[in-house]
């Protein structure tokens, strides 16, 4: 999952970014509105965290432009003033949630996870699909109730696929969302992760939860009753 | 006794000039009336004098106390009985030497004789009470043997014709003056309204500014007023700029205080060896900063700097925003705010009140939240109620600074305290209670009726120019 943080205060930005990376996100960092807008346009984002009190292009204007250009990823706004007028206007401009500074890091991470989940159509924090359950908060994955040990990369691939259950996710998209930097990206590695996931989640080979669509990508095939469209 | 003066300048001016007009017209009328009476009195006296001379030229004095008339009398009315013209010659002792044939009965009192050469003009009443003018004229009649006899000629003439003239004169004068007075009053009222039109316009524009329908007074006022209106404009824009600067300073302050707090808190979250008191201290600092800043930022009564903020759209966007924030659960919003209802003040204040109250309701509601606004001549009321579990018994502490009524989210207690302060600044009150209809909490904001208006939209700038 790739998240953008736009915050002009460098210490806060880097500590938020660190905390998000710890939680398994790939993070883009921007120090002002123009830079943020660039990332918003160029990156395959799953969510953005935008401070309203930005120098240059304001957070509100940035949200408005991104929405006008059809970017639909969830946006969480950070506000220092804590005034309802800003919050209501920010949410009206297209943001999806807000946090008032100072906030607890745990809360920020939980909100971002919830936004991404909701954007995928899941209303609960535990994704249930067939015998597989994935808790987005604890990153706990179980098969028929027994825990499955996954690496960080494996978890991210699984989360991406399950969040968009039934949809085709391309390899390029998966790499974009899993890796921090361009130079790390190697789409061949994705095949390796998917292979390992298949072995761990479907040891008997009867479930085949991940379908490969040649040239297009991967799809999570198990029914997802918790996901309402 | 205290005289109640009219409360408007226009009323005073109109009253004073009308009073002046009435005094002027009455004095003129009285003077004209007096002059008319004077001149007709003089005319009457002259007439009587000429009658006296006529009688004297016709009279012949015979023996003692005897006066006879030669030939015909100078006026046939002397001969016609009851004609209203009577004459008598009186001897020095008051005895009647001659009486005109018009005197059938006693007639009007001839009066006392007067000394020769003396003329007395006065009024007398006859037996029926009718008024007559009387002239007594004393003569010394030269007798043949060198002696003289004192005689007084007393002529009385009925004033009936004079009174008829006077009445007609007064009627005519009255009619003229009444017409003139009314015409002058109407002209004056029109002139006054013409002259004071810029004043009425200024009055209207200031009222529009108060209700936020207008940003500033228009140009083109007459010089005397322009000095005032341009200064008022300058004052209002200075006040607006000051308020904007103040808000900006507060924003900067908020940003520069809360971002470091956020840094402290984020650094704390990665250190688990610190005692929880540190985190609590950060939380308290945050609460204090949040409360004081929102207190300071609340604009309160706005006076001339205010705007008309449409209530219904803000309620709707707040509900939409809260649906996003509390997306985990769904709720039904019953929004009963009349279209066209405007709050006269700062949008931020209304947003703060709505946001806090509706957020609390959305957090606690099981499935429904009702937001209703009502305006009566006595008060403007905003009600936010939900079907949640209702307030705990200690509801009155809830709005006190920093007291928290729940642990269901940050800033709850502060939110209600801020609402209470804003509402108090606006001259209203906050009532917490139970919702009869929905069964949960009911919060009622009561504002003075002049804080809202029901008319929509700003007036066009071109309207009402002088």
Largest sheet report of chain B? 5 strands, antiparallel
- Most residues in contact, chain pair and counts: A-B, 33 and 41 residues
Strand content of chain B: 15-25%
The 3D shape of chain A can be described as elongated
**Level of helix content of chain A?**
40-55%
Quickly count the helices of chain A.
Answer: 8
Strand order of the largest sheet of chain B: 4-3-7-6-5
> In percent, how much strand structure appears in the residues of chain A?
15-25%
Poorly predicted segments of chain A: none
The helix-and-strand class of chain A reads alpha/beta
Tell me how many strands of chain B there are: 15
N-to-C span of chain B: 41 Å
The main sheet of chain A comes to: 5 strands, parallel
Radius of gyration of chain B: 48 Å
Description:
The complex is a heterodimer of chains A (229) and B (466). Chain A has helices at 10-22, 33-42, 59-68, 84-93, 105-119, 152-163, 171-178, 187-201, and strands spanning 2-6, 26-30, 47-51, 75-79, 97-100, 126-129, 132-135, 140-143, 146-147, 168-169, 210-213, 217-220. In chain A, helix 2 (33-42) runs parallel beside helix 3 and helix 6 packs across helix 8. In chain A, helix 1 (10-22) links the parallel strand 1 (2-6) and strand 2. Chain A has 229 residues and is of the alpha/beta class. In chain A, the strands form three sheets. Chain A has a five-stranded parallel beta sheet, with helices on both faces. A four-stranded antiparallel beta sheet of chain A has the order 6-7-8-9, covered by helices on one side. Chain A contains eight helices and twelve strands. A five-stranded antiparallel beta sheet of chain B has the order 4-3-7-6-5. In chain B, strands 9-11-12-14-13 form a five-stranded mixed beta sheet, with helices on one face. A three-stranded antiparallel beta sheet of chain B has the order 8-10-15. Chain B is built from nine helices and 15 strands. In chain B, helix 1 packs antiparallel against helix 2, helix 6 packs across helix 7 (347-364) and helix 7 runs antiparallel to helix 9. Chain B has 466 residues and is of the alpha+beta class. In chain B, strand 13 (429-434) and strand 14 form a beta hairpin. Classes of the chains: A alpha/beta (229), B alpha+beta (466). The A-B interface holds A 9, 11-12, 15-16, 18-19, 53, 80-85, 87-89, 91-92, 95-98, 100-106, 114, 118, 123 and B 250-251, 254-255, 257-259, 261-267, 269-270, 282, 286, 290, 293-294, 297, 314, 317-318, 320-321, 324-325, 327-328, 347-348, 351-352, 354-356, 359, 410-411.
